[in-house]
Design a protein that fits this description.
This protein has a three-stranded parallel β-sheet with strand order 1-2-3, with helices on one face. α9 links the parallel β1 and β2. It starts with a helix and ends in a 9-residue tail after the last strand. By secondary structure, it is mostly helical.
C-alpha cells in the first residue's frame, strides 16, 4: 500500500468537508449547508438500534440518503488498512524478553514493512526501553534515535542492550524528552 497516496486521499476528502472540521457542528446547526441537513434528517429517522449499528459496527444498511451513504463508505474505505499476508520473522530471544505477544506481533509487522525500505535511520517517539528500534536495527547498519519521557525505561533498555547486544546499543541514541508539537530536534 502506498501510504503517502492514502494520506493525500484522506487530506482531499477532509478538505471537502473543512467547514464541519473548523467549528463545532452544534454551534453551526441549523445553518449548515443543505447537504448536511439532509444527512441529519436521515439520522433522525433511525432508531437507537440502527444508530448503534451504524456507529459500532459500521452497518450502513439503514441509511437512505445516497450522498451520506457515499460519504460513509468513503470514510470506511480510507480508514481500512490491508491485512498483512506473509511470513513474519521471529524476534531473537535477547530482544523479545518481557514483550507481550501483542507487542511482539506489532514489532514483527513493522519490521516486515520496513524491510525493503532504503532507510538509514529513524526516530522512535515513545520508545520506552527501545524494543522496536532494537529489532529494526538488528542485523543491519541502521541507526535510531529513541525519545521517551521516562528515563527509567531507557535505562532498562540500555542495560539489556549493553549485556546482550552492545553492537545495537552503539547505533541507538536515547533522548529523555517530553515530545509534543513544540519540541525541536
Amino acid at each position: 500500500m502506498n501510504y503517502e497516496k492514502r494520506f493525500h486521499q484522506i487530506q482531499d476528502f477532509l478538505s471537502s468537508h473543512q467547514r464541519l472540521l473548523d467549528t463545532e457542528v452544534l454551534e453551526q446547526y441549523p445553518k449548515l449547508p443543505e447537504q448536511y441537513l439532509s444527512w441529519i434528517d436521515d439520522l433522525k429517522a433511525l432508531d437507537d438500534k440502527e444508530l448503534m449499528a451504524l456507529e459500532n459496527e459500521l452497518d450502513f444498511s439503514a441509511i437512505r440518503n445516497t450522498d451520506y451513504l457515499a460519504y460513509l463508505n468513503q470514510i470506511k474505505k480510507l480508514s481500512e488498512l490491508p491485512q498483512f499476508e506473509g511470513q513474519l520473522d521471529s524476534i531473537p530471544s535477547y530482544l523479545s524478553a518481557r514483550l507481550t505477544p501483542k507487542k511482539k506481533h506489532e514489532i514483527q509487522i513493522i519490521k516486515k514493512q520496513m524491510e525493503d525500505k532504503n532507510i538509514k535511520g529513524f526516530v522512535d517517539i515513545g520508545s520506552g526501553a527501545g524494543h522496536l528500534s532494537s529489532v529494526l536495527i538488528d542485523k543491519n547498519n541502521k541507526r535510531s534515535i529513541c525519545i521517551d519521557l521516562k528515563s527509567d525505561y531507557q535505562e532498562i533498555g540500555k542495560k539489556k542492550l549493553k549485556k546482550f547486544a552492545p553492537d545495537i546499543l552503539e547505533r541507538l541514541e536515547f533522548i529523555n524528552l517530553e515530545f509534543n508539537e513544540k519540541t525541536k530536534l
